[in-house]
Design brief:
By secondary structure, this protein is of the alpha+beta class. It is 46% helix and 10% strand. The protein has 11 helices and 7 strands. A 5-stranded mixed β-sheet has the order 1-6-5-4-7, with helices on one face. A two-stranded antiparallel sheet has the order 2-3. The chain is globular and about 50 Å long.
């Protein structure tokens, strides 16, 4: 699918999934986009590729920052990175999401960024040589397809814009699998593990002022209520039971 504006991209995400399901039915197949179809499997991601632009220029390339980022694009990315623990409540919104969001599964379980680093939550993609001007983008790897694409993209825009407005700075990029580093090295480099449960991300979401302002209390309250309902429903369930309960929900 081609790049689109945020609202159109969310529409297309829904349309593509309906299309895939429809084609599957014609062939006697059933489609699941659950982050954990099988508790022992790797799972399904819902990665988001995004770029910041102005006047037909891609601000993810041609700048003086790391890997060609402009100052604006770096601040936008830093805003997203800072708020990732809270964003998980909309981007990885189910109990099953955290069966997938584990190290060394290309899921981006650590709050860090790096060039083509598939274990970082934010992966910088510059594109092949000669295509950087139009291809450079940022991939958010820690989200999955249980997410409402409209809420997810709204959260990314809100936190990225907050970083842009506040002149947020990206930390040093990470060029190794964070899971290969010991705890002392992770702490020294400021690399934190993202929440590993829906409860952890929901607590971060509840405390996040940027998202509260962007969404407003009625929507924040509705999101919290839905997450609390799922936590209550699956309290004490085994990974196999969580996978089974979520397999055909989306």
């Amino acid at each position: 699918m081609s790049p689109e504006s945020p609202a159109h991209a969310a529409d297309t995400s829904v349309l593509v999934r309906h299309t895939i399901r429809g084609v599957g039915v014609q062939h006697g197949l059933r489609t699941s986009f659950s982050p954990k179809v099988d508790a022992a499997g790797v799972g399904n991601g819902g990665h988001v590729h995004l770029s910041l632009g102005r006047d037909e220029r891609n601000l993810m390339a041609g700048g003086s920052g790391p890997f060609g980022l402009t100052d604006e694009a770096a601040a936008f990315a830093a805003g997203i990175l800072e708020h990732l623990p809270a964003l998980l409540a909309v981007g990885a919104p189910s109990v099953a999401s955290y069966l997938r969001l584990v190290p060394q599964h290309w899921a981006g379980a650590y709050a860090c960024w790096g060039l083509e680093n598939r274990e970082a939550a934010l992966r910088m993609v510059t594109g092949s040589r000669g295509s950087e001007e139009w291809a450079a983008n940022l991939e958010v790897k820690c989200f999955d397809l249980h997410a409402n694409p409209y809420l997810m993209l709204a959260g990314l825009l809100a936190t990225g814009t907050a970083g842009l407005d506040g002149g947020a700075a990206l930390p040093d990029p990470v060029d190794v699998d964070p899971a290969s580093l010991d705890e002392a090295t992770l702490a020294a480099r400021g690399i934190a593990r993202l929440p590993d449960t829906l409860r952890g991300s929901l607590d971060s979401f509840t405390a996040d002022g940027v998202l509260a302002t962007a969404f407003g209390e009625p929507l924040m309250g509705a999101i919290r209520a839905v997450r609390e309902s799922e936590l209550e429903l699956l309290d004490g369930a085994s990974p196999e039971e969580v996978a089974a309960a979520s397999r055909w929900a989306h």
